[in-house]
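Re: your question about Mediator of RNA polymerase II transcription subunit 7

S., sorry for the slow reply, the queue was backed up all week. Below is exactly what I fed in.
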Amino acid sequence: MAEQEQPQQLPEAPFPAPPPFWRHFTIANEEQLKKIETSDAPQEKLPLHLAYLRPPRPPPDSAEFYTAFGQKQVIDPTKPSSLPTEQLLFNPDNPNLNHAVLLSTLTKSLLLNFLELTSVLSLDPTKHEEKMEDIRQLVLNIHVVINMYRPHQARESVKEMLEGILEDGQREIKECIRLKQKAEDFLGDVKRLRTTTALNGAIHENGTSGPQTSQMRKMEEQQRRWKMIHDMTDS
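Result:
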């Protein structure tokens, strides 16, 4: 009597070893694959050690699952179909479904089941399987409801990003206006200094002011100009 085929044993370690075909990803195999692909008559069926180098084809549009490392993964986790219908604790097609209330209800049920699990473990630990299955079902349903919020989360993320860009632009505009006003004030001060210098020169030519006083005023004006230039560069 032929032995029945044993089901595939999936890895249970939290960090399982990589699949064995990673050893085929070598430079020599890559060069060999390039030669085959660039040849006049490329082979449709490659040797096994070269077939691993080609990425798998994407699943068709109608597919709901894809296989990775021997396990089925959901293509679109936002759909409630990621969980079998018999395991859903709510009707996803209900138009009056309130996701916030549902999520709150499931969370409270999860806490209650956890308290019941602690009671079961304190009385008879061998009867924990049923309560653990209830907790697992609640967690899966909570995960489905959270995934249904993904489109809303994406919209909110884009909204926050655009608001941040807008705020940065407004800050840059305000900074440009501030620097423009400071430059205008600086040019106005320079213009006034030139006018004052011209008046002092005219007074000196008329002999109403001594050369020492005129020299001191020039030094003060130069110091003021240098101070304004330093203020402009520091800001």
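Residues 1-5 have pLDDT under 50 and may be disordered. The beta strands are 65-68, 71-74.

Happy to talk it through on Thursday.
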